[in-house]
Write a structure and sequence with these properties.
Layout (H helix, E strand, L loop, with lengths): L10 E2 L4 E2 L4 H6 L12 H12 L3 H16 L5 E3 L1 H6 L5 H13 L2 E3 L2
Amino acid sequence: MSIPSITTAFWGDADNIISIDNIVRLIQYGGYLLERQLMEYEAAVESWRDYYEMTNVQIDLLESIYARKIKRPDAKIILTKREIEMIGTDDPEGLSESNTSFEEIGIVWEN
């Protein structure tokens, strides 16, 4: 089984990303895994919307979480029951995976 990995290195600041690899190698050696994270905000949101076929409600949730995380990066974010419903599924397995993923970045669910 193959797992995603990045075998290139890059660094940067608010304006530039720099690598010893050219763009082709950067993408080839795993940079593609961060494609959306490296986009401008609006382009990234549209790309996520298209890729995951997100609804407007899900985009509203994404933007709300993003705004809170940017404002206070180290603060714990608590999603309300209403926000959890905005995820748009009642599948227990999917919700469990979402909960786990959110917890990994400091976002917990209201009980």
